[in-house]
């Protein structure tokens, strides 16, 4: 039988199998035969040993499509990053860092701006257009007005999705609305309780129907980027691409070079100022990191 690892605790793995429920499995011999440790998100073949008690063995880990480190999970189809349009004011530097990190991992990110009820339509569009114009899908939601919830639900269908965002943006409220029937009793709520203590956090996937899974992640307030060379950072800002061919210098960093088409585009308002500023800040940071 085939299923997906949704949780692993103390040598036991919990495998969700569409329409057959969850099996508690051991992974004896897997490391020896495949030289890898099972990971939440892995699709696996299991042998059912005891159907009435829902126990089995993992016999094979199927090939991984990808593997994230934060959070620890494999086979992620997409990430949804949630920010509030206001209260708290969106930290676009943090948003850009998240987008860069996911681009590096090859995971498509959709931006969800929640609390849309707190700003005018114009304000919402101004914010969204910064990201829409660089090719990102942006959805607006309001858990208060019950808006955009179905759009998010539609995105989750048949996928494994990581949900992330800073604290206070309404991520828990949103999860409760998009997944009223999910197996979330150990999810967002107990995460909240655990956050105060120094408990080990186990990443866990929640199945919201037979073929759709979400992973909630703890609210974060900073994101340290590593493994990216400062000179490569520009490649993570896709809106630069169409201009950089025209820059005088090949490999132009678009900061201090003369005859830089990216800076021209910035002057003309064709490239977002906020994004560009975040680019420069993060560039400096990556450059300084290199010195140590
Ligand atoms: N105006 C408005 N307030 C919202 C909305 N969604 C959530 N809130 C409020 O925002 C606050 C934070 O909501 P939570 O759902 O706890 O946010 P969270 O992102 O899970 O926060 P953490 O638990 O700190 O990670 C609460 O007071 C909610 O009532 C919304 O769409 N509009
Ligand atoms: Zn340039």
Automatic annotation (TrEMBL):
EC number: 3.6.1.-
InterPro entries on file: G_CP_dom (IPR030378), NA-bd_OB-fold (IPR012340), P-loop_NTPase (IPR027417), Ribosome_biogen_GTPase_RsgA (IPR004881), RsgA_GTPase_dom (IPR010914), RsgA_N (IPR031944)
Keywords of this entry: Cytoplasm, GTP-binding, Hydrolase, Metal-binding, Nucleotide-binding, Ribosome biogenesis, RNA-binding, rRNA-binding, Zinc
Keyword Metal-binding set for record: yes
Domain annotation CP-type G: ranges: 65-223
Major location (coarse): cytoplasm
Entry GO MF terms: GTP binding; GTPase activity; metal ion binding; rRNA binding
Biological process according to GO: ribosomal small subunit biogenesis
Cofactor annotation remark: Binds 1 zinc ion per subunit.
Residues that, per the record, bind Zn(2+): 247, 252, 254, 260
One cellular-component annotation, GO: cytoplasm
Required cofactor(s): Zn(2+)
Extent of the signal sequence: none
A Pfam family that the UniProt record links to this protein: RsgA_GTPase
Cell compartments where the protein resides: Cytoplasm
Record: residues binding GTP: 114-117, 165-173
Coiled coil, from the record: none
Free-text function comment from the UniProt entry: One of several proteins that assist in the late maturation steps of the functional core of the 30S ribosomal subunit. Helps release RbfA from mature subunits. May play a role in the assembly of ribosomal proteins into the subunit. Circularly permuted GTPase that catalyzes slow GTP hydrolysis, GTPase activity is stimulated by the 30S ribosomal subunit.
Subunit architecture: Monomer. Associates with 30S ribosomal subunit, binds 16S rRNA.
Assigned protein family: Belongs to the TRAFAC class YlqF/YawG GTPase family. RsgA subfamily.
Protein name, per record: Small ribosomal subunit biogenesis GTPase RsgA
Organism: Anaeromicropila herbilytica
């Amino acid at each position: 039988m085939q299923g997906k690892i949704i949780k692993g605790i103390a040598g036991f793995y919990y495998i969700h199998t569409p329409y057959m429920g969850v099996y508690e499995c051991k992974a004896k011999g897997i490391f020896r035969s495949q030289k890898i440790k099972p990971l939440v998100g892995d699709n696996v073949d299991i042998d059912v040993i005891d159907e009435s008690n829902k126990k089995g063995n993992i016999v094979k880990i199927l090939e991984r499509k990808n593997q994230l480190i934060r959070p620890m999970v494999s086979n992620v189809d997409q990430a949804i990053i949630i920010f509030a349009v206001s209260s708290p004011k969106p930290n676009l530097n943090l948003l850009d860092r998240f987008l860069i990190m996911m681009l590096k991992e090859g995971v498509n990110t959709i931006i969800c701006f929640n609390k849309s009820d707190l700003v005018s339509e114009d304000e919402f569009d101004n914010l969204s257009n910064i990201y829409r114009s660089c090719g990102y899908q942006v959805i607006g939601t309001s858990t208060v007005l019950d808006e955009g919830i179905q759009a998010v639900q539609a995105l989750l269908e048949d996928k494994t999705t990581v949900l992330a965002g800073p604290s206070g943006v309404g991520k828990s409220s949103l999860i409760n609305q998009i997944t009223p029937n999910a197996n979330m009793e150990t999810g967002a709520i107990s995460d909240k309780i655990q956050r105060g203590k120094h408990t080990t956090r186990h990443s866990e996937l929640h199945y919201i129907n037979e073929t759709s899974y979400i992973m909630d992640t703890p609210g974060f307030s900073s994101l340290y980027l590593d493994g990216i060379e400062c000179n490569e950072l520009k490649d993570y800002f896709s809106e630069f691409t169409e201009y950089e061919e025209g820059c005088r210098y090949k490999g132009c960093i678009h900061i201090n070079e003369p005859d830089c088409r990216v800076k021209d585009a910035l002057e003309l308002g064709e490239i977002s100022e906020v994004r560009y500023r975040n680019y420069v800040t993060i560039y400096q940071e990556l450059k300084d990191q290199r010195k140590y």
